[in-house]
């Protein structure tokens, strides 16, 4: 069934957020009006009745938990955090771990205390983690055995961290002097109701604090309230209601620290009672295929690089993947060819969604009943969208412009950063996404490009300014600009254009040795997805405007010409 869009009839001559001509409303049923419960009560509402039903299986370690385990662990951890570690509504707890089976209980226990929870990429280096710890003012750091050394180094340098806890696996004993999360799961003052004040402030108090670069700049804490997240969970449910069978398992190797994995795979599945099959270790396609065959999930939450593997790798034909009815792809654009090949090869639906941390994250989502290839779907429930040109004028169907979203899932703002908040969020609630898109006559959106200069590597955000700032501390580097280049496996990769302090490379061998030296230096200081795997190019000058702003678009134009010429060859 085709879902028709509706338009407002406001005057078309107004600009910026005042221009609501061609404003698109959702074709999905609206979600109920608030006030809403805090996230923990909302997600945990059925856990006592689900009992010993499996809640999560870690395909990397074979560890698993039941919903009864989830319920008891969440309550007990909340008691320990509040009464033993002084976690209150003024606190922030940082979670620095891969997809451990206790990730969701840890997340919800922080919410029960009324505190903020900052999930962090477990691949971060000490310095990267330290930035998040100090910007969020985290007093408790929950790490994992695989991240503990980095966590302890960062905690020692942080001016805020008072306690470090560690998630262990299969009965591991933590190092001397470090408390395990397992040892504080039980508390004689366990509780399952969020502190009273949170019930009165679900639309005002930040709960989840993912760090995002937004449209530009260095990482900023995205303040997502309890209401933001609860409304987004209901919006997901409206779009999934016609295809997601209650109680059926889902496979998701997505990292839970990422807002896509957190909201879709962890919170939503926890609320609906869907067992989640995940992977805490490094993604391995063969292991993923084994898990699908073994556990027979009916839906998969994936990112484009995994779908490329499903489309191309010969080993896929060796496994029974017939249980999969639908694959949801998000976090980066999925090519239509890959989408079609996977659909035909696996015999299941492939649909796309679009969002960002600032939207909790969902803004556009395709229903199972009406999938359009290459589209990220229509606007979700109780939400409005529009496409604007450079002057702020709203555009009609099939016209390219910047996508703007307005709805109850839009963030409260950036933590302690009103200036950056004002750059992307209008007084009337419109969020400028920085993505170039258009919509068709049915209200289905298609993402074309980004006005923002973020680089997306396997769905992870890489900020050019962050890498540039780091490279400028290298003694060999005089000036630098970082841009993205396209890559089939990862979506995009960072490439650095560097002006050397002294041009002392006279042969190809010397030049390659210098590039290798810089590459290895960066490699030791950043997470793997931030490495300069798009290459290093030495240049005589970095293009800049009169005000000194790097003109990255000129470098991106060079890359387009380079790849176009390569195709001709």
Question: Can you summarize this structure?
Answer:
This protein has 16 helices and 28 strands.
Estimate the strand proportion: 15-25%
Per the CATH scheme, the topology name of the largest domain is Rossmann fold
Please bin the fraction of helical residues. Answer: 25-40%
User: Taking all residues together, what is the mean pLDDT?
Assistant: 91
Strand order of the largest sheet: 4-3-14-13-15-16-17-18
CATH-defined architecture of the largest domain: 3-Layer(aba) Sandwich
Based on CA atoms alone, the radius of gyration comes out at 23 Å
Q: Count structural domains.
A: 2
> What is the overall shape?
globular
Q: Any overview of this molecule?
A:
The strands form six sheets. The chain has an eight-stranded mixed beta sheet with strand order 4-3-14-13-15-16-17-18, sandwiched between helices. It has a six-stranded antiparallel beta sheet with strand order 1-2-19-20-22-23, with no helix packed on it. A five-stranded parallel beta sheet has the order 6-5-7-8-9, sandwiched between helices. α11 packs across α12 (336-346). The relative contact order is 0.11. The protein folds into two domains: 39-439, ANL, N-terminal domain (Rossmann fold, 3-Layer(aba) Sandwich), CATH 3.40.50; 456-568, ANL, C-terminal domain (GMP Synthetase, Chain A, domain 3, 2-Layer Sandwich). The protein starts with 5 loop residues before the first strand and ends with a helix. The protein is of the alpha/beta class. It is globular.
């Amino acid at each position: 069934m085709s879902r028709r869009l509706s338009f407002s009839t406001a005057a078309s001559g107004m600009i910026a957020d005042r221009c609501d001509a061609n404003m698109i409303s959702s074709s999905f049923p609206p979600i109920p009006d608030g006030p809403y419960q805090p996230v923990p009560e909302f997600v945990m509402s059925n856990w006592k009745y689900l009992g010993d039903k499996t809640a999560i299986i870690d395909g990397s370690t074979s560890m698993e938990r039941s919903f009864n385990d989830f319920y008891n662990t969440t309550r007990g951890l909340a008691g320990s955090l509040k009464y033993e570690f002084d976690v209150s509504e003024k606190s922030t707890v940082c979670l620095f771990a891969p997809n451990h089976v206790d990730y969701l209980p840890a997340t919800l226990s922080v919410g029960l205390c009324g505190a903020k929870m900052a999930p962090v990429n477990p691949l971060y280096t000490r310095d990267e983690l330290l930035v998040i710890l100090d910007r969020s003012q985290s007093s408790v750091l929950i790490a994992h055995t695989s991240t503990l050394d980095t966590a302890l180094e960062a905690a020692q340098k942080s001016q805020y961290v008072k306690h470090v806890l560690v998630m262990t696996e299969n009965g591991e004993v933590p190092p001397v002097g470090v408390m395990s999360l397992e040892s504080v799961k039980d508390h004689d003052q366990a509780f399952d109701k969020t502190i009273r004040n949170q019930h009165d402030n679900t639309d005002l108090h930040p709960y989840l604090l993912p760090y995002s670069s937004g449209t530009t700049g260095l990482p900023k804490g995205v303040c997502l309230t309890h209401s933001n997240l609860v409304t987004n969970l209901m919006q997901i449910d409206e779009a999934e209601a016609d295809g997601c069978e209650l109680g059926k398992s889902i496979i998701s190797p997505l990292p839970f620290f990422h807002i896509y994995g957190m909201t879709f795979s962890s919170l939503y599945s926890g609320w609906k009672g869907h067992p989640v099959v995940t992977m805490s270790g490094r993604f391995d396609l063969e292991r993923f295929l084994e898990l699908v065959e073994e556990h027979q999930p009916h839906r998969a939450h994936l990112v484009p690089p995994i779908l490329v593997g499903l489309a191309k790798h010969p080993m896929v034909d060796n496994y029974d993947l017939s249980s999969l009815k639908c694959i949801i792809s998000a976090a980066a654009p999925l090519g239509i060819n890959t989408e079609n090949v996977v659909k035909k090869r696996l015999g299941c639906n492939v649909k796309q969604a679009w969002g960002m941390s600032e939207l909790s994250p969902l803004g556009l989502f395709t229903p199972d009943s009406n999938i359009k290839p290459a589209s990220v779907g229509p606007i979700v429930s109780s939400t409005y969208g529009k496409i604007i040109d450079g002057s702020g004028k709203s555009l009609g169907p099939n016209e390219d412009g910047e996508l703007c979203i307005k709805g109850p899932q839009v963030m409260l703002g950036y933590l302690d950063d009103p200036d950056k908040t004002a750059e992307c969020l209008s007084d009337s609630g419109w969020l400028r996404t920085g993505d170039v898109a258009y919509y068709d006559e049915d209200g289905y959106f298609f993402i074309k490009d980004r006005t923002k200069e973020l680089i997306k590597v396997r769905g992870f955000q890489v900020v050019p300014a962050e890498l540039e700032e780091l490279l400028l501390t290298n003694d060999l580097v005089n000036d630098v600009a970082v841009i993205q280049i396209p890559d089939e496996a990862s979506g995009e990769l960072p490439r650095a254009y560097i002006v050397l302090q002294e041009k002392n490379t006279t042969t190809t061998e010397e030049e390659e040795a210098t590039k290798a030296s810089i590459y290895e230096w960066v490699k030791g200081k950043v997470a793997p997805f931030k490495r300069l795997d798009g290459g290093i190019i030495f240049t005589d000058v970095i293009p800049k405007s009169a005000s000194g702003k790097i003109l990255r678009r000129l470098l991106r134009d060079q890359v387009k010409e380079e790849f176009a010429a390569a195709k001709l060859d």
